[in-house]
Amino acid sequence: MKQSAVVGVVRVWMLFSTLWASLGQLTSRQECVRCKCDDCSKPCCKVFSPSGLTELSVAVNCSQPDDVIILDTVTMATDPDPESQCNGHSLTHTDGCLTSTPTNLCAFPQIKAVSLRNNSLSKIPELTCLSGLIYLDFRKNVITTVPQDTFKGLFALREVYLDDNAITYIHPLAFDPSTSMLTTFSVSGNLMTVLDPWMFLLPRPFCRFNFSHNNIARLTNEQHFNIGRSSRAHYGPGFVDVTYNNMVMSPADDMKQYGIYEVPDLLPFISWGFDLRFNPFHCDCKFFKVVKFLNYVSTYLWRSYFNITCASPSQFRGVPMFQLPLDQLTCPVTVTCPLPCTCTQRPYYQDVLVNCSHKRLMTLPRDLPEGNLTLDMTGNAIRRLDLQNYLQRVVHLNLTANHLFEVDQQAALALRHVRSLDMRGNNLHHLSTTLQVVSPDAIYLDIGTLKCTCELEWFLHWTGRHIYENLQKITCLSESDGRHVLLINATRRDLGCEAEDTSLSHETWAYVIVAAAVVLIVPILVVVFRYELLVLYHRFFHRQPGEKYLPALLEVPRYDIFVSTATNSDNDATWVSRILLPAMDRRKLTYFVPQRDNLPGAIPMDEVVQTLRQSKCALILLSPDYLAQPICCFQFRQAYDMMVKEGRGRVFVVCLQKVKRGQMQDHLLRAILNLNMAYSGDNPDDLYNLINLI
């Protein structure tokens, strides 16, 4: 992820955080609710208390805990006030021996609160009949699963507590999609091993989903839900607690299954809170993006749940993630890693480090891991650098302290992307000419091992006489006089090449050949493409009208556009009436269409000339029917001569249908198409841009 993108996301996060207090849900005043804070719209406000409801009593015999009924004495004796907001019942039976809910539960549809905490319930009963249920407390029972549609039809459900059961699985579709009031869902202290986030992807703010103190190790995606970077859906916000679980690997890997690959993909959740503390995270390369994100976020915004610590490896145990050194977040790579080398993935450097130093290797490894490579071959016995299929992926290659005396030409070509190539401590007497594909500041050589030969002449052009710090002290040994010559200052004579003045003749001949080619080719191009060149000249250079046209230019144009289209062409007429004219009307442009606006009895050609003089520009609607009509070709030529050549305005060509170049008798019209200066009638963007130019 790029630093600028991360910083931008952080700033957006800070903006959303300031608006957090204003986000919330509307509280229904038709339910039995009591605000316990100043603002009932806050999702974490305690807005409900069962104390104001009529309490139902339960008859149960612990010797037969399955035979349970609700006694109907108090509720029938007292007729509740229909105007009261607290018109409802509550069912409470805690610290008992219930193994099932009362058999006549649905006989009391006005139940708004159910609290059966600390009993022996093994499953959640059918609750669809309690459509007004707001509060559900089944803590400290022996419930094992929460199946699909468990809470179906409970549209007013606000708080659900299933803590301290034996729940191992919650179906992602346990809640009714129409449930719009849910603020709290707690399943702390259960036996869950996986978590499907689909259940808390609510389209409105909520307070807290608590999954703490389970055995959650990873995230799942049973519904194949994909958020995607282009998603416009709104979720939450809310707070999700996953503390004290068994998450070891980075959640970033699990999030890929939801279409979340980079930090910008998290924008729909920018104002959420996720507490992942107290998990045994193994902080390696897979945490790189998470740690990098936390580093930036903690600089601008701090939350206590950012203090996520590592459990392993040992050097990071107990260290907060936002304090981890990014360059030390690495992972061992075993796939295609050659023995006896070690391979390490390093996200900070965006490469895989292959360490084969001091392994007594005679050649380069044959296969290496995927990705950019940093290859350390220090202290081996390599004599020749041969071509390998991975060399084009090598960004750093260290060949110091080997027995290297030759570099294969194809191997040098493959190293064109290398950023450092260290060949010091070897016996190189010659350099392959193909090494010049490598940047001069990337190669490191011994000072005095090279021999001065004419084969090194490329070195002078390669460095361009620039002084590179890594090359400025490199010398070669002259075989003629035995002296060491600085390569960056060497002459052809120093390298033992032919006389220096012959190079001048080669350069001179090169200039002569180029000049001759220009003299021959340019006239040919002018003849072949004379009309194209004329159109370009009129378009870009012929801007000033002559004095003889000045009086006409002082006239106020009557029309913005002269529309030249084929006569009696149904396709062209349909395009004009349905697409072109409405577009021009929206821009309030004035236009003249000869087929529609010619005066009865007027001479068409005279009318064309007169109307063109009163127009700012001409629009040529090109089609096979247009080319077949002489009057249309006359309109184009008059428009081009009067608008373009005389400098009165511009001519725009729009292709309504494909036309063959051979059908065009007018060379200027053909040149406009050859230069791709025509617009497409099938492309709305072309028409929009064209109208804006007028």
TrEMBL record:
Primary residence: membrane
Family that this chain belongs to: Belongs to the Toll-like receptor family.
Membrane topology per record: Single-pass type I membrane protein
Record's protein name: TIR domain-containing protein
A Pfam family assignment: TIR
Gene3D superfamilies: Ribonuclease Inhibitor, Toll/interleukin-1 receptor homology (TIR) domain
Biological processes, Gene Ontology terms: signal transduction
Domain TIR span(s) in chain numbering: 557-694
InterPro entries: Cys-rich_flank_reg_C, Leu-rich_rpt, Leu-rich_rpt_typical-subtyp, LRR_dom_sf, TIR_dom, Toll_tir_struct_dom_sf
Keyword presence, Transmembrane: yes
Localization per record: Membrane
Residues of the signal peptide: 1-24
UniProt GO MF annotations: signaling receptor activity
Transmembrane segments: 509-529
Organism per entry: Pomacea canaliculata
The UniProt record lists the keyword Signal: yes
The entry's keywords: Glycoprotein, Leucine-rich repeat, Membrane, Receptor, Repeat, Signal, Transmembrane, Transmembrane helix
GO CC annotation: plasma membrane
